[in-house]
């Protein structure tokens, strides 16, 4: 069983490990630089909300998400989020649990919409989750993401009314 709760500074090392693996994989996040534990503490604490998922039996961090405004001012009611699941825990429905949690949290925080600006078209597991949870495709940007190996993949924009 997975428990999702708010990120605490004491989670920084485990959170950085999960986040950095996605960066290293080079197929989903736009970031190039990995986070140190100290940088992770600051980065995850500065988000509107960071949720971290733990295995209830082992107390091991198995996934996380960051939630923040997609824009400012008159567009500040639209949320954006990024998700990461520990590599050896993928395929266990943790991604779906953290996406669902983020939608609830975004609504609780007063956001009206969730928008994803750059879902890599080759990220089939993520796309499956988003569509299952009711996200709507807005469109595709051809070759909008440079993969780690240097080739380009399309990115898909999604939204979800909260």
User: What is the general shape?
Assistant: globular
C-alpha termini separation? 26 Å
Strand content: 35-45%
Category by helix and strand content: alpha+beta
Radius of gyration: 15 Å
Arithmetic mean pLDDT = 97
Q: Write the CATH fold name.
A: Aminopeptidase
Low-confidence stretches: none
Q: Report the strand count.
A: 7
Q: Please report the first level of CATH classification, the CATH class.
A: Alpha Beta
Give the % helix: 25-40%
Please indicate the count of domains. Answer: 1
Q: How is the main sheet built? A: 7 strands, mixed
Topology pattern, helix = H, strand = E? EHHEEEHEHEE
Question: What is the topology?
Answer:
Blueprint: E1 2-6, H1 12-25, H2 37-45, E2 49-55, E3 61-69, E4 78-85, H3 94-108, E5 113-120, H4 124-132, E6 136-146, E7 152-161
Parallel strand pairs: 4-5
Antiparallel strand pairs: 1-2, 2-3, 3-4, 5-7, 6-7
Helix pairs in contact: 1-2
Short summary:
The chain is α+β, with helices and mostly antiparallel strands. It contains four helices and seven strands, in the order βααβββαβαββ. A seven-stranded mixed beta sheet has the order 1-2-3-4-5-7-6.
Overview of this structure, please?
The chain has 4 helices and 7 strands. By secondary structure, it is an alpha+beta fold. The chain has a single domain, classed as Aminopeptidase (3-Layer(aba) Sandwich), CATH 3.40.630.30. A 7-stranded mixed beta sheet has the order 1-2-3-4-5-7-6. A hairpin with an 8-residue loop joins β3 and β4 (78-85). α1 (12-25) crosses α2 (37-45). The two termini are 26 Å apart.
């Amino acid at each position: 069983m997975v428990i999702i709760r708010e990120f605490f500074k004491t989670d920084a090392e485990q959170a950085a490990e999960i986040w950095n693996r996605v960066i290293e994989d080079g197929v989903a996040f736009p970031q190039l630089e990995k986070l140190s534990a100290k940088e992770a503490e600051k980065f995850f604490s500065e988000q509107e909300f960071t949720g971290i998922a733990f295995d209830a039996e082992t107390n091991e961090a198995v996934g996380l998400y960051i939630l923040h405004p997609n824009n400012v001012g008159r567009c500040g009611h639209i949320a954006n989020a990024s998700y990461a699941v520990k590599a050896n825990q993928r395929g266990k429905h943790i991604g779906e649990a953290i996406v669902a949690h983020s939608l609830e949290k975004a609504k609780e925080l007063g956001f009206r919409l969730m928008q994803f600006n750059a879902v890599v078209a080759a990220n089939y597991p993520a796309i499956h989750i988003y569509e299952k949870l009711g996200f709507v495709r807005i469109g595709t940007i051809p070759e909008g993401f440079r993969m780690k190996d240097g080739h380009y993949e399309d990115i898909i924009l999604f939204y979800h009314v909260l």
